[in-house]
Amino acid sequence: MFKKLLCVFFGMGLAFSASAADVIADMHAEMSGCETCHADGAPSEDGAHEAAQCADCHGGLADMEAPHPAHDGMLECTDCHMVHEQEVGQHPACDACHDDGRTAN
Ligand code: HEC
Ligand code: HEC
Ligand code: HEC
Ligand code: HEC
């Protein structure tokens, strides 16, 4: 899975440096277009193809830093990361689902 990510890093050069105000999906589309996540550029009905793409580059929830492992087996990446709505650097809020005032850090 890291092979694909490394190819992206070496292939992209400075492309990420200018993407601070980009929507997360647009920043990803700079890698391989809409096909970075979608088969044939269009969303799948069940989201399975997109979820597999996330995992292929980033790994699974269990392998990531907090708050990710606590949600392994319960959530998909896109339950928290609205990739077409949130901007790069904008982190998901806990209170969308937890009402006890917890935060990411
Ligand atoms: C980072 C991965 C990623 C990239 C790159 C990406 N998408 Fe998506 N897209 C998703 C995911 C995940 C969903 C389903 C959940 C959502 O809407 O956020 C989605 C949903 C959509 C939808 C349905 C939206 C809706 O409101 O029903 C369309 C249309 C779409 N994408 C088009 C595109 C196009 C066109 C591109 C290229 C310009 C693109 N996407 C690039 C991940 C991505
Ligand atoms: C429970 C909600 C949640 C889920 C599910 C989730 N994330 Fe996150 N993610 C976050 C939060 C919150 C942060 C910011 C953490 C912090 O403050 O350091 C984050 C950070 C990240 C970052 C680093 C962003 C940065 O600026 O450092 C990446 C990459 C990421 N997530 C990818 C994923 C992927 C891929 C998945 C699915 C395998 C996923 N996330 C699932 C909430 C979630
Ligand atoms: C082709 C490889 C690839 C795919 C597929 C991919 N990502 Fe990424 N993603 C990256 C790279 C590279 C970065 C920038 C470096 C980093 O933050 O890890 C990134 C960054 C992110 C970030 C951090 C954005 C920020 O605020 O800094 C999130 C969140 C994220 N990806 C979620 C997802 C989700 C959700 C999916 C699936 C819908 C996905 N990624 C699919 C390679 C990928
Ligand atoms: C999309 C909904 C969603 C979001 C957003 C979300 N969580 Fe969760 N989280 C869940 C679900 C569902 C569970 C499993 C059921 C439970 O224990 O409440 C869970 C469980 C947890 C657990 C393990 C059980 C517990 O309650 O201690 C931790 C820790 C946790 N989440 C932390 C966070 C943090 C920190 C954030 C914000 C960065 C966050 N979550 C955002 C849905 C979410």
From TrEMBL:
Record keywords, A-Z: Electron transport, Heme, Iron, Metal-binding, Signal, Transport
A GO term from the CC aspect: periplasmic space
Subcellular location, record wording: Periplasm
Location of the Tetrahaem cytochrome domain: 27-99
Protein's UniProt keywords contain Transport: yes
Alphabetized GO MF terms: metal ion binding
UniProt entry tagged with the keyword Signal: yes
Signal peptide annotation: 1-20
Major site of localization recorded for this protein: periplasm
Cofactor entry: heme c
Segments forming a coiled coil: none
UniProt cross-references to InterPro entries, sorted A to Z: Multihaem_cyt_sf, Tetrahaem_cytochrome
Protein name from the UniProt record: Cytochrome c3
Species per Swiss-Prot/TrEMBL record: Ferrimonas sediminum
